[in-house]
Design brief:
62 residues; 16% strand; 52% helix; three-stranded antiparallel β-sheet; alpha+beta
C-alpha cells in the first residue's frame, strides 16, 4: 500500500495564496514559521504546512 505524497507548492504559489511578496515568504521560511524542504536546490512548501501556518495565524488573531 502506498501513501500519496503531499502536495508541494512553489514559492510563487505561496506568494499568490498569501498575497505577499517573495521576500516575506523567504522570511517566514527563515524564521521557521513556515515549513519548507529543498528538492535539488528548489524550495518547496508542503500544502499542509501552509494550511497549518494560516490556521496558526487565525488562532493568534482571535
Amino acid at each position: 500500500m502506498t501513501t500519496a505524497a503531499p502536495e508541494l507548492l512553489t514559492v510563487p504559489e505561496v506568494m499568490a495564496r498569501l498575497k505577499v511578496g517573495r521576500t516575506k515568504v523567504y522570511d517566514l521560511i527563515r524564521t521557521h514559521r513556515l515549513v519548507s524542504i529543498k528538492v535539488d536546490g528548489c524550495r518547496r512548501i508542503p500544502a499542509d504546512a501552509l494550511g497549518d501556518f494560516i490556521a496558526n495565524q487565525i488562532g493568534e488573531a482571535a
